[in-house]
Q: What sequence folds into this?
C-alpha cells in the first residue's frame, strides 16, 4: 500500500527568509492543498510589534473564524502568556497524530507538541 504524501510535506526544511516567513508558509500550503489564494499582507517580519497590530486590523482576519476544536490546516496562532500573538503555523493531522507545521527562523518544521498558548482559526472566506 502506498501512502499519499501531502503537499505541505515539500516545505519541511525550507529555510526562513524575509519573503518566506510564517504567513508565506500558510499562504503556500493553502494554495497547494485548498486552492485558496490568501493575500500577501505586506507586513515585515522584522518589526514584530508593528506587524501584530497590522495583522489584527488586516481585512484577511475577517475571513477566518476562531474555533475551539481545530481541523486539519487550521491556522495556529501562537501567543505569549499575556495573549499577544507573535507567530502562526498550521495544525496538521498526520498518521502520528496532530502536529504544528510552522516556519520559525530556523526553517519549516513539524512539531508534535502543541504549545499551550495557541488559538486556532478556520478559513471561512
A:
Amino acid at each position: 500500500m502506498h501512502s499519499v504524501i501531502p503537499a505541505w510535506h515539500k516545505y519541511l526544511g525550507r529555510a526562513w527568509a524575509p519573503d518566506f516567513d510564517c504567513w508565506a508558509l500558510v499562504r503556500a500550503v493553502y494554495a497547494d492543498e485548498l486552492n485558496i489564494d490568501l493575500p500577501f499582507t505586506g507586513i515585515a517580519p522584522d518589526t514584530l510589534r508593528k506587524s501584530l497590530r497590522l495583522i489584527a486590523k488586516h481585512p484577511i482576519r475577517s475571513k477566518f473564524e476562531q474555533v475551539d476544536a481545530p481541523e486539519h490546516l487550521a491556522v495556529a496562532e501562537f501567543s505569549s502568556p499575556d495573549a499577544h500573538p507573535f507567530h502562526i503555523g498550521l495544525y496538521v493531522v498526520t498518521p502520528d497524530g496532530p502536529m504544528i507545521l510552522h516556519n520559525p527562523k530556523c526553517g519549516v518544521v513539524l512539531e508534535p507538541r502543541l504549545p499551550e498558548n495557541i488559538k486556532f482559526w478556520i478559513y471561512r472566506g
In short: Strands lie at 64-67, 74-79, 85-94, 97-102, 109-111, 118-123. The longest strand covers residues 85-94. The chain has one domain: 10-123. The chain has two helices and six strands.
